[in-house]
Amino acid sequence: MIKELSKCIREYKAASIKAPIYVSLEVVMECIIPFIIAQLVNEIKAGCSFSVIATYGSILLVMAAVSLVFGVMAGTAAATGSCGFAKNLRKDMFYKIQTYSFKNIDRFSTSSLVTRLTTDVMNVQMAYMMIIRIAIRCPLMLIFSFTMAFIMGGKMAWIFVILVPVLGVGLALIIRLTMPLFRKVFKKYDRLNNSIQENVKGIRVVKSYVREEYEKEKFGAAADDICQDFTRAEKILAFNNPLMQFCMYAVMIFVLSFGSYVIISSRGLDLDVGQFSALLTYSFQILSSLMMISMVFVMITMASESAKRIVEVISEESTIKNPEHPVYEVRDGSIDFDKVNFKYSKNAEKMALANIDLHIKSGETIGVIGGTGSSKSSLIQLISRLYDVTEGCVKVGGRDVKEYDLETLRNQVSVVLQKNILFSGTIKENLRWGNKEATDEELIEACKLAQADEFIRQFPAGYDTHIEQGGTNVSGGQKQRLCIARALGKETRFLIADEISTMLDLITQSQIWNFLLDEVKRREIGLIVVSHSEALLKQVAERKLPFTAEKTTA
Asked: Considering all CA atoms of the chain, what is the largest pairwise distance in Å, rounded to the nearest integer?
């Protein structure tokens, strides 16, 4: 896990190294200052002149300033390193998700991926910042302060050696009890985010059926469940502070009482006032370091589960990969299904597609008829290798799709999906998903073919109109026509139309099909029409293009 995460430091390695160096120099300054103060106290006690006091004061002032500068530099380097590390984590996770096959995406829920990209990364970022700064500072402070405490206080410093194991056992117990709780909490975070995502995405349905109260109760139950687990974890973590306070006050009582006794009984021979003041300062430094170490352990405990979840995403290998020597050219638009069987999971009892033998010539128009749930969409997803067949073979241009470079293969397929998706951005930006080099004239031509040009021009900003997330500011029919225009803007071997006219009126349907059929004939590309309506396919067939209809096996 650490090896995988460390790969994400990259260009922020310098900042991550500088932070501990600056912290070390800051600690050295802070540990020397009490020693100088002890010398000053002894000089004052001996009746020194003002010039001696001024000299010591100047030295202390310079050392404090140097310590402050190193502290600022350490903080800046730690912030740069941790924020950059988090940026790279998000980037690597997002880039990795883009390589996933549908099967990989099915394994992770959308809400879980969002939680991992946000909450989990933030937890790891905080832990990383603590590791490169506080986790370096505290052990160094402990070592230097222990050393100086023994130099200045002698046998009295053994009190610290006795207390450290007590604190260590307490912290180990706290971590052991809280880890399982944090593991449960993050899984529940996924479910909570899923509830939010479903509610926001389906808010129109929620309001139409007046289910606001039900949704609020469902969300409240999920939030309360997380709250209870966090409360249990926080109750256990709360023991950390009293334990530290107990150790701190125990040290103060011991040092003050026993130190005062030694000074009085030995008349300053075994322990003088300067040494005593330095010992008090070092005791506070040691205990504050232990307190900070306990905080680091708590943060790392919480972040370790987040780190595991992040590494799961980064180390996940796509089930669909490019071949070792891929083919970069598709000869033609012919498609062949040779005894294809397909199921979504190895454990599935029934095949989604069984015994499919289908042969489509280049430039041919074919209809795929089937009722709801008959795996029509599953069939077309095998062509562009969004899923791999379980048995048999799918060929495009006479070659098995597994032999092609994935980008090359998918660039030859233009798809209008049953579920239309638009992205945040202008209409032009959405249309250029089909062809990023398309000119304005080519975009307008595609929109005219899709019967979208007229309603686009009615918008005040025309083709520069901003589309909200998911296309919520356009109607279902408008969204569908924009998606058809996007597909028509792409130069491909064949076009797949999956239930593309379900949200259109009869007149618009007729216009789109007339233009679409003329266009595929002009460009000599294949057309696969997926529909549950046999009447629609008969209408397409009446255009007297080469046409066959196959029913998928449920």
From this structure: 116
